[in-house]
Structures are given as C-alpha cells and as structure tokens.
Write a structure and sequence with these properties.
Shape: globular
Structural class: alpha+beta
Order of helices and strands: EEEEEHEEHEH
Distance between the termini: 51 Å
Number of strands: 8
Mean pLDDT: 88
Number of helices: 3
Largest sheet: 6 strands, antiparallel
Radius of gyration: 16 Å
Amino acid sequence: MSDPVPDLPAGEFLLECVAVRQETPEAKSYVFALPPDLPGFDPGQFLNFVFEIDGEAHPRSYSVSSSALVRGRAAITVKRTKGGRVSNWFFGAMLPGLKVRASGPVGQFCCGLEPADPILLLTAGSGITPAASMLRSLADIASQADVVLVHFASSADDMIFADEMRYWTCRLP
C-alpha cells in the first residue's frame, strides 16, 4: 500500500530521498527522485523545501549540486552547521525513502550548457554547490567553455567535491 499523498500548496510536490553520500565529515549530498512531470533544472538553480521537524515547518532553500543532464534526479549538498536546526536534522533523519515537500526549481544564477563568455566562479565552503551543478553539467557534455573556479575551504578535510575538482580540471579547458 502506498503512502497517501497529502494536500500540498500550489506549486509544491513531494521529493523522495533515494541516496545519501558523505562528502566531508560535515557535509553530505542527498539525492532525490524528481516527479516525472517536473521538466528538470538549469545548472545553478535551487529548490525550496519545507521540512517538518517536531511539528514545526522549517522552510529552506538549497542549491542543486548535481548535473542538470541526469534526468529524474537532483542532489543537494548540506553542510552541518553548529546549532543548525535543519542541517543537524538532515544528518540524523534524512535517509533513503523519506519524502519532503519542495517547490521550484528557481533562480537565475545559471551559466547554461554552452556559455559564450568565459566563466569565473568564486566559491567558499558549501557555496560550491551551485558551481558544482554548473561544472558537472559542463563536464558531462565535454564543453569547451572557458571556466575558472577559485574555491576556498578552511581545511583539506572541509574541501567539498575535492576529488571531482581534479576531474573537472581534466575534463574542462
């Protein structure tokens, strides 16, 4: 028997977590199955979520960190924040099979799949997530776009997507 679908506000839908991946000691990526009627997202866009925690609604926005070319799935990457109500809930409660309310994708911080102009991405910490979506998407199509990423992390252990950064260096000019 399937779970009953609650009445959702206009524009909202349910996303089911299908995978969780540890990125650093304090960051995890959560992969969600997208509804079939959702057209996808542009690299750099974000999703709006509403998390029910202890009977209270907690709205949050998270940038998509996955490639826009992987249809039917979207990942977000959450860095645990000391005292953070939602980020700590994610680390303890978000597991495959759990469904959450969402809307979107929205946002105009996008580069497209064949940018005409050079791209300079300046990021720090978990701010790498929208840039990761862009770089993953561009790498997936072997884009010839001129891209420079400058990223800061407080330590090597805190470098989200460190291994993939090496891949992007080889894959993109």
